[in-house]
What we know:
It is built from ten helices and 16 strands. It is of the alpha+beta class. Strands 1-2-8-3-9-15-10 form a seven-stranded mixed β-sheet, sandwiched between helices. A hairpin with a 3-residue loop joins β12 (266-274) and β13. The chain starts with a helix and ends in a 34-residue tail after the last helix.
Amino acid sequence: MTDFTAELEERLLRYTVLDSQSDETSASQPSTAIQLDMARLLAEELTGIGAAEVRTTEYGTVLATIPATVEGLPVVGMLAHVDTAPAYRAAGVKPVVHRGYNGGPIGFADAPALVLSPEVSPYLGEKLGHDIVTASGTTLLGADDKAGVAILMTAARHLLAHPELPHGAIRLAFTPDEEIGRGVDPRLPEDLGADFAYTLDGGRVGEIEYESFSADGAVVTITGVSVHPGIAKGKLVNALHLATKLVATLPQATMTPETTDDREGFLHVYEMGGTAAEAVVKLILRDFEREGLAAKGALLRQVCDAVQATEPRATVVCEIRPQYRNMRYWLEQDMTPVELAREACRAEGIEPVSVPIRGGTDGSRLTEMGVPTPNVFTGMQEIHGPLEWISVQDMAAATRVCLRLVGMVRGEAWRLAWHPRLTPPSGPPAAPSTPGRPAPRG
Ligand SMILES: [Zn+2]
């Protein structure tokens, strides 16, 4: 098959210099206007390569169609996100290509103390001779998920230039705000119009992920009694004291992100603030299983009740709301999309691996909303920080897997064992699965 490395590298470099960071503190949709610059660029390029039905939705997602060359096949969606993580500096990215990697340490022009090596990133040790792309030391690279964007644009360009290749209709979607958990607008499943889909947002070569965390968010609001401190004796109830009591009572030596891995879930306090009058504590709850997630919610409520019991004059209100659910619950009912991706890997001589994601993807939400959407590797590594890197050859492998995949979709292969538009599953089924080593992603 064609060697896509030159095109992939050119696209990755061009996309990564465009700052398209999302911002969870913003209420607008998309959260930042700079993401629309990226959307505009992609819409223009899609039109330029001959894609059909190119449009940008009012929620900032770019949609396009690669028309079917064979009729009667399922419609396959392909997604990547245009935003980069708010977790690290993303303005002024200067991508650097380290051509023909020699196995040694990689330095950074703008951060002389920073070193990337197989010691800090063991997977790099497998990439001898590859062309490695990094940033210059002061920003993230944004291969998460510009690599996914570059892979899909390259695959789309190739398919549109080769109408002799057999495939059904392919719907492309480039979404904003994935990194802040707002990538899937309620209108997206309908607008996408795919029978099943894939996100190009995974790590090492061969990763086909169909299991993510189940996730809830919690906000605890503590209202004290506000009195002038000079006349407060016996009257004032300090909400900040109660908030610290709450945090101190929650598990710290277990059940936190820093003390768990593999298939363990956690309770994570990520923000607290307020005044003596009112304090707010924000948490996220994560577990691979519904029962485990529910148990963490129950524990949080118990701790809230205990704090409330120490001070009846205060009010402690705990609100827990669902964020996303483990996509395995739905995908296990019909593994066809996962199996297709695995087959496509094998056809490229790549052994597929499925590890649970210690986080979520746009596919977690999409799957729950009726579009089964496993996650496919791109090659991205050490994401959300200055050591972020990717091999151009890994991106080429992902591109070839995508092309294989769309060529393998057969009408009869899609068994429609369940289809939410026809028969919504009555809640996630029970939970047998293959335990694997989870990937540190999200
Ligand atoms: Zn991502």
